[in-house]
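## Example record

The block below lists the input lines for one assembly entry, exactly as stored, with component labels intact.
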Amino acid sequence: DIRMTQSPASLSASLGETVNIECLASEDIYSDLAWYQQKPGKSPQLLIYNANSLQNGVPSRFSGSGSGTQYSLKINSLQSEDVATYFCQQYNNYPNTFGAGTKLELK
Amino acid sequence: QVQLKESGPGLVQPSETLSLTCTVSGFSLTSYSVSWVRQPSGKGPEWMGRMWYDGDTAYNSALKSRLSISRDTSKNQVFLKMNSLQTDDTGTYYCTRDGITTVFAYWGQGTLVTVSS
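Predicted structure tokens for the full assembly:
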């Protein structure tokens, strides 16, 4: 199975700040990488697919980048509604696998 | 609009079988694939298996010996059956629909399954 390692595990940032979350795959996943946002008590929501494609309806302050084994999610101008846990997921190989998550809080 | 809703028992005895139903609306099961994803409390999600739009199935190898996914297209329902449940099978179970690619673009509200005697 492909292991997805996210960093950091938790993050505290101020409103308006730029935030970066990293995801490292244990082998090349050829940009078959998605990012999800999960707020407490809610289902995950798709933010980014194909490493850098923004899902319909997702604010443009969210962006994704990367290739090979290294990927990142960037949130520009952090808003209060962005407080959540973020997961990366690879869909290049079965079984599709997720990272353990990055919990984003406000400073 | 696209909707998925999971239903099933909230409590299952150890060694028993879990049966869940995902009822969908706003799309056809013969056009889009549906996956089951579960998530233990405080942990990352785990993909369990997929019912492809053409009726084929794919399973997580870690669960394949215990898991079965089927569907009834006339009722817009996808079913999950998993046997020999243990306490570490406790968590929230979601059904999801693929998007443009095989990502989980739409999620149900989830159903909490607790395995306990």
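The CA atoms of residues 22 and 72 of chain A lie 4 Å apart. DSSP finds no helices and eleven strands in chain A.
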